[in-house]
Fold this sequence. Notes:
Blueprint: H1 7-11, H2 13-22, H3 28-36, E1 43-47, H4 55-59, E2 64-69, H5 74-81, E3 88-92, E4 105-111, H6 121-130, E5 131-142, H7 149-156, H8 162-171, E6 175-184, H9 188-198, H10 201-210, E7 215-226
Parallel strand pairs: 1-2, 1-4, 2-3, 4-5
Antiparallel strand pairs: 5-7, 6-7
Amino acid sequence: MPVIPSPNIWHWPDVYELENRAQDVDGAVFAALAEVADWADRDVADIGCGSGFHLPAFGKTARSVVGVEPYRPLIPVAARRIVAMPNVRVVQGSAETIPLEDGSTDVVHARTAYFFGAGCEPGIAEAMRILRPGGVLVIVDLDATAYPYGEWMRVDIAHYRPDLVERFFANARFECRRVDTRWEFPNRDAMAEVLRIEFTPRTAKKALRSTPGTSFDVRYRIHTLRKPSGLILS
């Protein structure tokens, strides 16, 4: 299966870096991740790591971290970010073809990358392959049911059905946790730049017009699936 393009970071990496810095400024997502998929002293794979923005956060306490990124131009960018962290490396690969050995990983993390509902079954299977028994696949995605960001998403992606996505993950036996976050920008020009790479011009303009100040709320969903650690009797 060909790699699904990620136009925002592929085409506007500098603006996407600005977006990453603005996201979840209170650290709510990482706090929730630490509860459902503690990575301290464990081996982590970050799938679709992009420019490696989240790799240092894992690398501070993990035993090892491997960033897996399909888009070749982003790999050296991510590698420069973790040059001082010997326990972190970046490799080229995809969610469906992860260049790691069977049972070599404790936490597989993917944030707003590849795992968007039906069709991602090969990636789930590949994550299960590299996980050790008891390891966890944790998928962080945007909750399109929440105002205001989710509303902007639904306007722009008319075919996207958040209820069907949630049903898909529930049927695949994932647990779901919702996390409310705050995005904070240094100024309104920065906010406008980010909105323009995430939405159509019409929606971006409407979003900016309806948002006072330099921040807005965004809700995430954290889907987790743990690999069985022992014999399961049915």
